[in-house]
């Protein structure tokens, strides 16, 4: 058991594959919040 073993994390790293022992890290999706400066934000009285 070790680098050549398909079922271990070290073996997955060595082979460059993924699986249950070494899942892919998913990137977090962040929503882009855009602030529009062109709009008139003054309060009318």
TrEMBL record:
Skewed-composition ranges (Basic residues): 1-13
GO cellular component, one term: ribosome
Region feature Disordered, mapped onto this chain: 1-24
Protein name: 30S ribosomal protein S31
UniProt keywords, alphabetically: Ribonucleoprotein, Ribosomal protein
Recorded family membership: Belongs to the bacterial ribosomal protein bTHX family.
The species this protein was found in: Formosa algae
Matches recorded under InterPro entries: Ribosomal_bTHX, Ribosomal_bTHX/bTHXc/bTHXm
